[in-house]
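Weekly modeling sync, notes
Attendees: S.R. (lead), two postdocs, one rotation student

Agenda item 3: backlog of single-chain predictions. S.R. asked that every request posted to the team notebook include the full sequence so nobody has to chase files. The rotation student volunteered to paste the first one in as an example of the format we agreed on. Action items at the bottom.

Example entry:
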Amino acid sequence: MIFFGTIVNSLAVLAGGTIGLLVNKGLSTRLAGAVMNALALCVLAIGMSGMSESSNILITVLSMVLGALVGEGLDLNEKIHRLGHAMERRFQTPGSQVSLSEGVVTASLLFCVGAMAIVGSLQSGLSGNHATLFAKSLIDGISAIVLASSLGVGVLLASGIVFLYQGSITLFANILAPLLTDSVIGEMTAVGSLLIIGLAFNMLKMTDLKIMNYSPAVFFPILLSLFM
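Predicted structure, as returned to the notebook:
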């Protein structure tokens, strides 16, 4: 069952997110704000550590520029927020201070960006080896507890994004494997880490970046690495 690792990963996010929601109910507004700021600093550290994966800064720059052009052209940020607002009416916890769409976007990027998501999914698809995704599931489950305690129910919904993203890589592993070399994965991780830094700045209310409009940048290193 090639999707077993991805299924376990998605369920781990769901379970961790559920625990986080229960924890959040016991936090006062002041403590919830403090946890959110602490989480933002951790997200910033994660993003900064991933930037070192790049071996060609030009690919990072061009990927961000091209990703911004595509994202702004499609206005992905507006579309995800419309979807988020529609889902809020159905799923949002009363009195929540964080939008559902913010929780989905933040959690999805954190869970999907990085080498473990790509390499683990390739291993599942090519050899049925789910060890990397099992390890990632443990990390993501613990992270989901912390994320959901601050960002709410959107973290649980991000489990669907994890399943679609990793499941797609697993399904098309034979086709993608020659393209997703170590250097390409490193460049994708670096670009994704830059987006995570932007998320951290938003969480700290230092900026109001439309992160989803930059998200296509994550996939451009696959194309650019063929020529650079």
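Discussion: group reviewed the output briefly. The mean pLDDT is 88.
Action items: rotation student to repeat for the remaining queue; S.R. to check formatting next week.
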